Every structure is written in C-alpha cells, then in structure tokens.
C-alpha cells in the first residue's frame, strides 16, 4: 500500500486533524493523526496492518515471537499486528507515569519482540516501551508504527518500519507561529492525564 493510499485511509476515517495540538512530547503541532479513528473500523485496521505486517516480514523477516505495545494508542494496532503476524500481542501501560507490564502478561526470556506503536513523533514513548521489554528479558528486534511523523529521523535504537512517513511541523510552546498561537490548544493523547 503506497503512502497516498494510506493517507486516503486517514482522510476517509476523518483522522487527519487540523488545529493546535499539544503532543505527548509537549511540542505543539498544527496537525494531528488520530489513529484511534482509523483503527475503529476493523476492516480498515485489517487493511492497514496487513500492509504494515508485509513490510515487517520484508524488512525484519520472520521469527517474531511477540508483539508488545505501549498503551493506549498502541493497544489496538498491536493486537491487529499480532493477528496479522500470528503471534500473541501484549501491552505495557503507565503506572505513576512509567510503563509497566500488568494483567498477568509475561515476556519469555529472550523472546524476539516487535514493539508496535500507532504514531512515532520524537520516539520517546517507543524508547520507554523498549526499555521495559528489555528489562524484563525480551529482545526487541524492531519497531513498527502506522505513522512516523519524524520522517525517519526518530532514533528508537532498533530499526523502525512505518506505513506512512511524514515530515509534520512541530514547535516548542515558547516559539509558536502566530497563526498557531491564535488557536486554542487541545491535547488528544492520554500521557499525564489526571
Ligand atoms: O514519539 P512520541 O513523541 O513519544 O509521541 C508518540 C506517542 O504519542 C502518542 O501517545 P500519548 O502519549 O499521547 O498517549 P496515548 O497513547 O495513551 O494516547 C502516541 O500513541 C505515541 O505513543
Ligand atoms: O506526538 C504525539 O503525541 C502524537 C501525534 C499525532 O499525530 N498523533 C498522535 O496520536 N500522537
Ligand atoms: Mg501512545
């Protein structure tokens, strides 16, 4: 599936939002990719994750034992990637701000893990997730995301396979362009929510 077709899926799902967004990194952006709206349609999730799984097979190869995702955004895409790759899918979730494995999930020692995200912007969430997987004995062979907003620049410490690579502007809050500063800021993600 080429990038234009992936973008068409986002547009059809009304997941390509314009406004003033506070990203999880604290950066501000005039554009937000709301992957939850894309993944709410099981057939669309199937199409996109089949394409992402094919890229993973091509670029990483077979031999993945386990998908591990960071909640919330990673949960649905991680589950669908597990289904496409024929392996179990588990997730880490924030406890007092730090990712932890809960709900009886386990990572077998040496398991070859694929870290699956919905969106990568700075890569911080991916790196946090990978750190937990490795601390628990897993081996992260690669990451996969529907969207890489860094256009390949984010370094997550392992190869990152993405369906859509975008170079989307983001700004520090004290350096906003006037047209962005004029709009009320919204924070769609869940990091730091009370
Ligand atoms: O590469 P980064 O700069 O870390 O940004 C990307 C992260 O931001 C979003 O999650 P968010 O923390 O907003 O929370 P959510 O997944 O719980 O919605 C998204 O799901 C990624 O996890
Ligand atoms: O960086 C983020 O927080 C982020 C950006 C984006 O476009 N979509 C998303 O879910 N999170
Ligand atoms: Mg997230």
Give descriptors for this structure:
194 residues, alpha/beta, two-stranded antiparallel sheet, 6 helices, 28% strand, binds 1-O-pyrophosphono-5-O-phosphono-alpha-D-ribofuranose, binds orotic acid
The counted number of beta strands is: 8
CATH architecture assignment: 3-Layer(aba) Sandwich
Mean pLDDT: 96
Percentage of residues in strands = 25-35%
EC number: 2.4.2.10
Protein name: Orotate phosphoribosyltransferase
Subunit structure: Homodimer.
Keywords: Glycosyltransferase, Magnesium, Pyrimidine biosynthesis, Transferase
Give a summary of the structure in a few sentences:
Its EC number is 2.4.2.10. The protein is 32% helix and 28% strand.
Please explain how this structure is put together.
This protein is of the alpha/beta class and 194 residues long. It has one domain: Rossmann fold. Helices cover 32% and strands 28% of the residues. The protein has six helices and eight strands; from the N terminus they run αββααβαβββαββα. Strands 5-4-3-6-7-8 form a six-stranded mixed sheet. Strands 1-2 form a two-stranded antiparallel sheet. β3, α4 and β4 form a beta-alpha-beta unit. α3 crosses α4. The longest helix is centred in the N-terminal third of the chain and has 18 residues. The radius of gyration is 16 Å and the shape is globular. The relative contact order is 0.19. Bound molecules: 1-O-pyrophosphono-5-O-phosphono-alpha-D-ribofuranose, orotic acid (ORO) and magnesium ion (MG). The site of magnesium ion has 4 residues, from α4. Its cofactor is Mg(2+). Pathway: Pyrimidine metabolism; UMP biosynthesis via de novo pathway; UMP from orotate: step 1/2.
